[in-house]
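User: I'm curious what two different proteins look like when written out as structure tokens. Can you demonstrate?

Assistant: Sure. I'll show them one after the other, since each token string lines up with its own sequence. Here's the first protein:
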Amino acid sequence: QVQLVESGGGLVQAGGSLRLSCAASGRTFSSYVSGWFRQAPGKQRKFVAAINWYGGNTYYADSMKGRFTISRDNADNTVYLQMNSLNTEDTAVYYCAAKTFYTSKSYSDIGIYDYWGQGTQVTVSS
């Protein structure tokens, strides 16, 4: 059984920063791509960012470009999401996800991911 465990969420003032982590545990596996999604109350879960473990290429939703940075630590099998210049619209539960095999589909497609974390709450106050 594979588990993805997010951490690093919390309460931050607008303009502040947070760094989320997503650690994989359980049966050893290699991710092909890892992604971050977020879900605000009453809204659908939306793509934030993704990283390809083999080439290291990164992908972002337009509204996150320049503010958020996704990265990975191969040794620890951990994915990070550095979030800067946070605003109240970034308030949501943030989820990490992993896709274990190659896909030709867009990494922003929520349906391609095999494993999901339980989510971590990020609240940005004005």
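Here's a second, unrelated protein for contrast:
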Amino acid sequence: QVQLVESGGGLVQTGGSLRLSCVASGRIFKNYPMGWFRQAPGKEREFVASITWSGGATYYADSVKGRFTISRDNAENTVYLQMNSLKPDDTAVYYCNAARPPAPGATTWYSVLDYWGQGTQVTVSS
């Protein structure tokens, strides 16, 4: 059974920080890179960050580069997203998913699973 459980969201002021966590079922976590995605009200879900299985390589959307850091603990089947210098534009529901690399020449990673967890709400006040 697929399991994706996100946590750690909340309400913060501009410039604040949050650390998100996602626990994934072992079958998924052990076989795929993992990624964070987010969906703001009225917008499509978008890629935020991804990390290879070994953790040796990470990738970020331009909008979060230099502010967010993705990491993973393979022993705990957990992927993290450290978010610093938060902006109101970061307000969204954040989700994790297995991730697959972009097409040649592109930079956006894609989710692997059709299944999504409940997500965790991040709200940044101005």
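A detail about the second structure: The chain has a mean pLDDT of 95.
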